[in-house]
Design a protein that fits this description.
This protein is of the alpha/beta class. It has 9 helices and 11 strands. It has 2 domains: 116 residues, no CATH class; 162 residues.
């Protein structure tokens, strides 16, 4: 009797990315009755604990170190490599009984449209407890020091956020952010914060620009809305967002999954997503799940 084939997925740094990688692997594995092997980017990777705590059941996946990666697949089957969304679609529609090596991001909302309720069932349910308020995920962090963040096509200004929020009716605006506090910052303070990844070379040169942008958002949002700030760490922030009926965010795979795994009736996403990436831009800003809308 042959062993089960294996779907092996390599995780990248970033929990939102990991959810796409895991969910696609699980969808494919279920179709061919395969095991799942997860290859983290480094030992003791923070994303693994978060994934494990979110899942509602014990899944047949194992975490493998780099040195064991070549031996994770079964010799009874050929191995197919998938590295693009196009290939991901093809094999999800017509899967083969084979080992699969996943080497992409799989950040295409249409891959999950037909299975969204099934995907939700894999994760612990969060009660939709905040129905009269809205939550805005304000992703800043290391992006403050990436020059492309300030490209006019993608710059998430207060005016843009406000235009999106006009589509929602709410009492209090809860803001979830990777900033540790809701206050004004100097450039040096922003440089000294802990980030999930290393800052890009030349971060020092744009620290004051980063501070001006951050402080303008904080001051204008506080002046226009009744704001409550929330920052409790990766997992708690994710679950907090899921509890809202009205969710809005810019371009963030973390927030995209928090919204997709929620029961929100209204979800606003920045439609252009990351236009500065041109042909590599994702279609996540055009997500057309029930209740979702794009803003720009």
């Amino acid at each position: 009797m042959k062993n089960q084939p294996t779907v092996r997925t390599g995780l990248t740094v970033g929990f939102g990315n990991n959810l796409f990688q895991f969910v696609y692997a699980k969808l494919l594995a279920e179709k061919i009755d395969a095991k799942i092997a997860i290859l983290p980017p480094y030992g003791d990777y923070f994303g693994l604990e978060c994934l494990d705590l979110l899942l509602d059941s014990v899944d047949n996946y194992e975490v493998i170190p780099v040195y064991n990666a070549p031996y994770a697949v079964s010799n009874d089957y050929p191995t197919i490599i998938i590295s693009s969304e196009k290939e991901a679609h093809e094999h999800l529609q017509n899967p083969q009984k084979a080992n699969y090596q996943l080497c992409g991001y799989f950040e295409d909302f249409t891959l999950y449209s037909n299975d969204l309720e099934k995907i939700k069932s894999w994760f612990f349910k969060v009660d939709k407890s905040r129905t009269s308020d809205a939550v805005l995920h304000l992703r800043l962090g290391d992006r403050l020091f990436i020059p492309a963040t300030y490209d006019p096509r993608a710059l998430l200004t207060f005016e843009r956020y406000s235009k999106g929020l006009e589509e929602l009716e709410f009492d209090t605006l809860y803001i979830v952010s990777d900033l540790p506090e809701w206050k004004n910052y100097s450039g040096d303070e922003l440089l000294s914060l802990d980030y999930h990844t290393h800052l890009t070379q030349g971060a020092e040169k744009i620290k004051d620009k980063a501070a001006d942008y951050t402080n303008e958002l904080i001051n204008k949002l506080s002046a226009k809305y009744k704001v409550e700030f929330y920052h409790e760490g990766l997992l708690k922030d994710f679950e907090f967002i899921r509890g809202f009926d009205k969710i809005m965010f810019g371009y963030s795979t973390f927030a995209w999954w928090a919204a997709a795994l929620s029961d929100a009736s209204r979800v606003g996403v920045f439609e252009p997503w990351r236009p500065m990436k041109e042909d590599k831009n994702k279609n996540l800003g055009k997500t057309n799940y029930p209740g979702w809308f794009g803003w720009r």
